[in-house]
Amino acid sequence: MNTMVIEQTDLPIKALHKGKVRDLYEYDDKMLIVTTDRISAFDVVLPNPIPSKGVCLTQLSKFWFEYMKNLLPNHVISTDVNEFPTDLRKYKQQLANRSMLVKKTKVIPIECIVRGYISGSAWSSYKKDQTVCGITLPRGMRESDPFDEPLFTPSTKAASGHDINISYEEMKKQVGHDVATQLKDYSLRIYQTAAEYARKRGIIIADTKFEFGMFNDEIIWIDEALTPDSSRFWPADGYTPGASQPSFDKQYVRDYLNSTGWDHQSTPPQLPKKVISETTRKYQEAYEKITGKPFRF
């Protein structure tokens, strides 16, 4: 197993963007995405990396992109460093199992969020005024209850800081009716297909988010796919509505941070070794449950 921890990369090719977790590079008319072991919570990068996290996210995305390839197009060209251009292969130690060579797209600046269950910020909003992202919901819902139908709740995609929830009508104003309709349709179809598959593997996908881009005038699925960073994964065998659920995602880290009294604005606290190791375990367990394969990289 590759135990190298990669917090950041510095490849001698044009850097396009260093995100909270991913480092993006330009290579000819393509992009190279390297998923580091950085972890963010509440839109802030935390001081401690999570070993093997970048590998886990990349390999899960690889699985889902492959699983959904007949449902919609995606941006993946290759996730195998041995298939990368020759001058990139020399950086195999940094890139192995945590990088994707992808099509370069014009990113559509919308986070496409689908919620199958009421949790997190949706639950907080519901308790205030019985709405989630402007959608009025029935009375009497409990935390972690399923919605009658999955909700599509888009947000703006902020370059830094917090994304802002917007209504579907506002989304149509920003990207146009046809694009908005296609994004909503794709998002709900991906979620419903993935949720049905994952439930058979013992995981409830409570909510998730997707990103899309334009490539040759076609909308394609980009970035990551149904990972513990972009989704809320719950163990199905312990699901009990009426309370928060244990999870295979970074909710464990969020819960720890909240227990410290951190204000989500100042410098975040260091993560204890136990929190780091348990987060690594949860990510790898999610990979193994979903793919049916041992995490060996």
Number of strands: 16
Number of helices: 8
Shape: globular
Helix amount, in percent?
A: 25-40%
- CATH homologous superfamily descriptor of the largest domain: ATP-grasp fold, B domain
Question: What's the CATH topology name of the largest domain?
Answer: D-amino Acid Aminotransferase, Chain A, domain 1
Question: In percent terms, what proportion of residues is strand?
Answer: 15-25%
Describe this structure in words.
- With 297 residues, the protein is an alpha+beta fold.
- The protein has two domains: 15-104, Phosphorylase Kinase, domain 1; 107-258, D-amino Acid Aminotransferase, Chain A, domain 1.
- Helices cover 31% and strands 25% of the residues.
- The protein has helices at 53-67, 86-89, 92-95, 120-129, 168-175, 177-200, 251-259, 273-291; strands at residues 15-18, 22-27, 30-35, 40-41, 44-45, 76-78, 99-103, 106-107, 110-117, 131-132, 135-136, 146-152, 155-156, 203-215, 218-222, 231-235.
- The strands form four sheets. Strands 8, 9, 12, 13, 14, 15 and 16 form a seven-stranded antiparallel beta sheet that branches.
- A hairpin with a 2-residue loop joins strand 10 and strand 11.
- The longest helix is centred in the middle third of the chain and has 24 residues, at 177-200.
- The radius of gyration is 19 Å and the shape is globular.
- The N and C termini lie close together (5 Å).
